[in-house]
Design brief:
Radius of gyration: 19 Å
Strand order of the largest sheet: 1-3-4-5-2
Number of strands: 5
Strand content: 15-25%
Mean pLDDT: 90
Distance between the termini: 20 Å
Largest sheet: 5 strands, antiparallel
Number of helices: 8
Oligomer: single chain
Low-confidence stretches: 1-27
Bound molecules: heme C
Length: 245
């Protein structure tokens, strides 16, 4: 990468965003905010998924009542609570269309999973938050050309494999000197076009360790091999690539 052409800042929240705006010429805080909102929207959808896991994996009933419309309504409601942006109001913000495309991707993924979700007589179905996030990212990219993905150093799904940029930032996140939770954002080039890239680190919580914990290499409920993470370890990151005008 050509360092002289890049202006970058490590951001954490609104204060740093304002700092970046004033300190970094050519860096549109506005676009960083858009990337942050996209990350918010996918995180909200994933937490709705987490809440639904027991319901989805309930072998005793068929219809779970967990539909794409439910997902979309929850995402819009919680996004409004977090950001004060009401996506029900037409053109509430200039990026409403982009945000709604992501809500629609989340809705579509849950709608497509209905046959799995509503299958009776089966407990664990494999429709988990990480799968939801990956499929949402794939749908969203098709709709908008904006890349959004969950990635990690020791990834399980090849579609979550970090590219060179992501691998470098993940290594930085994994360095104990990196302040925990601090987002990384940079204006750079991808395939000859200017983009804003943002990565938001994620850490292993207790609920992740059934699948990603110890003993390393043991099979988890999904049939995958546990990574050996401990609580607080870097799990990965949400990565956004936003084309710039
Ligand atoms: C039920 C088992 C299970 C639980 C619980 C779980 N994961 Fe995963 N995780 C998976 C599977 C399976 C994948 C691969 C999903 C796919 O197909 O994209 C994955 C993928 C990921 C990825 C993307 C990189 C990769 O490995 O492909 C990250 C990051 C991740 N998980 C973090 C977490 C975190 C953080 C938690 C807790 C909040 C968590 N996971 C809870 C099973 C689980």
């Amino acid at each position: 990468m050509n360092a002289t052409r890049l202006s970058w800042r490590v951001l954490s929240g609104v204060t740093a965003m304002a700092l970046a705006l004033s300190a970094s010429p050519g860096f549109a805080a506005n676009e960083a905010e858009v990337a942050e909102h996209l990350i918010d929207l996918v995180k909200i959808g994933r937490s709705v998924m987490s809440e639904q896991m027991a319901n989805i994996n309930d072998a005793s009933k068929a219809d779970k009542g967990f539909t794409g419309d439910y997902m979309a309504a929850q995402v819009i409601e919680r996004f409004k609570k977090k950001t004060k942006i009401d996506l029900r109001i037409p053109n509430a913000v200039p990026q409403s269309g982009l945000y709604l495309a992501l809500v629609e991707a989340e809705k579509d993924v849950v709608d497509e999973a209905q046959p799995i979700i509503n299958r009776a007589g089966i407990g664990f179905k494999g429709f988990i938050p990480a799968v939801f996030a990956r499929k949402t990212g794939e749908h969203f990219f098709k709709k908008t050309g904006v890349k959004l993905k969950l990635t990690g150093i020791d990834y399980r799904n090849v579609n979550n494999r970090p590219d060179d940029f992501e691998a470098e930032v993940l290594r930085m996140f994994n360095d104990p000197r990196h302040p925990k939770g601090q987002t990384y954002v940079r204006n750079t080039m991808l395939d000859g076009k200017p983009v804003l890239r943002m990565m938001d680190p994620e850490y292993a919580g207790a609920s992740c360790l059934n699948c990603h914990g110890t003993p390393k290499g043991e099979k988890d409920v999904t049939g995958g091999r546990k990574e050996g993470w401990k609580e607080g370890d870097l799990a990965g990151a949400i990565s956004v690539v936003l084309p710039l005008k």
